[in-house]
Specification:
A seven-stranded mixed beta sheet has the order 1-3-2-4-5-6-7, sandwiched between helices. It contains nine helices and seven strands. α8 links the parallel β6 and β7. It starts with 6 loop residues before the first helix and ends with a helix. It is an alpha/beta fold. It has a single domain, classed as Arc Repressor Mutant, subunit A (Orthogonal Bundle), CATH 1.10.10.10.
Length: 221
């Protein structure tokens, strides 16, 4: 959840070595290779965009608002996000809806493929007991690892988040085999109530809370 899952990093025992490894990935791969390949001259813009996304993991993102904060057009923000998706730094999650009036679908959520990159971007590799974003890290980690597993096993699935205008939400909705599976991610909390609107409108859908106790079996089910 803190340093991520890059294979080489697992063999590094010293924290300073891990920090250096992650910084090198960002400086050599992200800043050099990507920026040169795409002929992007202003590296600070794309790094600042990543920082903004890092602080909004698990929240809906407005491209127009990001553009205002970065003094860029909405189209440029969209182009940068598309680039970061193609090189497997970020991925997008769209909202689920069956055209019910209260469901939110226009905005998307963005996640990092690797928590270590996310934490290095915001210069915070502190342990969990010194952080106030453990829930955000858990959600990002679980969704990213689940998508990797789906890809590895060639699972035919559509992935979404679900949210209503009155703030009812579910972190991950999987649509597969003609059925809906709803998952809420809680780092320590083992129980969570099914949102009333979801239960009413999708009574046949399965619902499960994924915590530190049961995540492994779920990831490889």
């Amino acid at each position: 959840m803190i340093f991520g899952n890059y294979p080489e990093l697992i063999h590094l025992k010293d924290i300073s070595q891990k920090q250096g490894y992650l910084k090198e990935i960002i400086n050599s791969y992200l800043l050099k290779d990507i920026l040169v390949f795409e002929n992007i001259k202003n590296a600070s813009k794309i790094i600042n965009l990543l920082r903004l996304i890092a602080f909004q993991v698990g929240s809906q993102v407005s491209l127009q608002e990001l553009g205002k904060q970065l003094s860029m057009s909405k189209n440029t923000v969209e182009r940068y996000l598309d680039l970061l998706s193609k090189v497997f730094i970020l991925f997008k999650m769209e909202g689920f809806s069956r055209n019910l009036r209260k469901e939110v679908t226009k905005s998307s959520k963005w996640y990092f493929y690797d928590n270590g990159i996310r934490n290095t971007i915001i210069a915070n590799l502190n342990p969990l007991n010194l952080r106030n974003d453990s829930g955000m890290l858990w959600e990002n980690y679980m969704i990213a690892e689940r998508l990797k597993y789906q890809s590895q096993e060639s699972v035919l699935v559509n992935n979404y988040f679900w949210r209503t205008y009155d703030q009812q939400e579910i972190d991950l909705i999987e649509e597969r085999g003609g059925n809906l599976f709803a998952y809420e991610f809680k780092w320590l909390k083992r129980n969570a109530k099914i949102p009333a609107a979801w239960k009413k409108n999708y009574p046949e859908a399965e619902f499960q809370v994924i915590s530190s106790d049961n995540y492994y079996d779920w990831l490889v089910e």
